[in-house]
Amino acid sequence: MGSPPLRPRRKVLFVEDESTLRRTYKRFFAERYHLAFAASGTEARRQMDEFHPEVLVLDLRLPDTDGVTLLQEIRQSQPSLPVIVTTSYVSMEPLINVLDLGHSGYLVKPFDLEDLAARIDALG
User: Fold this and answer.
1) 3-state SS, residue 93
2) Considering its fold, how many domains does the chain have in total?
3) Range of the domain at 31
């Protein structure tokens, strides 16, 4: 009697310009998911092509583009990719909802990493 087959680890791309938070994500999620990181919109576009994530965790404030523009681009090429939006700005939520960008969740920093994990896990 063997143990049940393990689900393959989900590929998650974290787009986050804060290096401290990227390191925190890496430590917290390394055993749970296959991880890739991008600190800018330019890196995110490259990682989308090379890593092929199954879930995207996207900070809306990036040094070279705003996350709304990046999300609009991603929606054009990958309309069904689950995206969890993160931001430090509560005031961004109405904008995201009005633009109807098809995100799969919204978290305002600081948030609990277990909450983020639960949202990623709930995506299928």
Assistant:
1) helix
2) 1
3) 11-121
Specify the amino acid at residue 75.
R
Report the predicted TM-score, pTM, of the whole model to 2 decimal places. Answer: 0.87
The residue length of the chain stands at 124
Q: Does 72 reside within a domain?
A: yes
The Cα–Cα gap between 115 and 44 comes to: 23
Give the H/E segment covering residue 57. strand 55-59
Report the candidate in 104, 107, 116, 33 with the shortest Cα–Cα distance to residue 71: 104
The predicted structure's pLDDT at residue 4: 46
| CATH code, 100 | 3.40.50.2300
The mean per-residue pLDDT over the stretch 102-114 comes to 84
- Tokens describing residue 22: 């990227």
Tell me, what DSSP letter sits at residue 61? B
